[in-house]
Amino acid sequence: MNKLRPIRILLLGAPGSGKGTQTSRLLKQFNQLESLSSGDILRSQIDAGSEIGKEASDYISRGELVPDSTMVSLITNHLKTSNWLRPESNWLLDGFPRTYNQALKLDEALQGNQANLNMVVELDVDQKVILQRIENRWIHPSSGRVYNLDYDPPKVPFKDDITGEPLVKRKDDTVEVFQKRLDQYNKTIEPLKEFYNQKNILYSIEGNTSDIIYPKLQQLILNKFT
Ligand code: G5P
Ligand code: MG
């Protein structure tokens, strides 16, 4: 898979649509890819007790978005320190940008370095099937690995497959907060999609399971980047 053109993908999708799940599958298949999940970064800042973590914690537990200015500086810093602002870099973003304003700022940072996004994929999953997934989700906080007690259970109950460390529940995975996250997503997604549609890099993949979506996603990438 190393002969592909540089791949720079953004995954869009409602909370629980499977962005993290698709990301781990893509990383296994396309070994030149690295990924960045804005939610994982925020959760690690919270665990570390940093200033950003303290600020973000309240927003996250209420199911609200962390302010754009905080997100833009956090993520652009990460892009710089990871040396991703290069024309030949390959990476995948999960969860950032998720407002029009964040998209504009990211675009500025990328354009100046000839490292534009070249594919934006919306995971289009019926929102009625998502809630149950969230109630059964357990995560390994330090790696971001995601499990589901029904769909993708750990080999040993409540332990991470790789490290054996305990799995935890996310504080925002309650019915009430989840509904707010979903409402928030529905309110902000259209302008974001329109922004990338105008650049002709927006794709949408429909499917009510990750097993239906993954082969389509894989094919889309192979078609576009080979
Ligand atoms: P996050 O962390 O970015 P969300 O809400 O965007 O959170 P989330 O919940 O992480 O997205 P996901 O990654 O799309 O969902 O889904 P996933 O974890 O892969 O799958 C969900 C569950 O379903 C898992 O248990 C998985 O195993 C299971 N599953 C997957 N596929 C299937 C299937 O086919 N069938 C079944 N049965 N199960 C399946 O953001 C969190 C918060 O951080 C802040 C906000 O406060 C946000 O609410 N934040 C930002 N704020 C402002 N700007 C930003 N850019 C921000 N980014 C984060
Ligand atoms: Mg996620």
Automatic annotation (TrEMBL):
The keyword Transferase applies. GO terms for cellular component: mitochondrial matrix. Residues 37-66 are annotated as: NMPbind. Residues 136-173 are annotated as: LID. Residues 137-172 form the Adenylate kinase active site lid domain. It catalyses: a ribonucleoside 5'-triphosphate + AMP = a ribonucleoside 5'-diphosphate + ADP. Its EC number is 2.7.4.10. Belongs to the adenylate kinase family. AK3 subfamily. This is GTP:AMP phosphotransferase, mitochondrial.
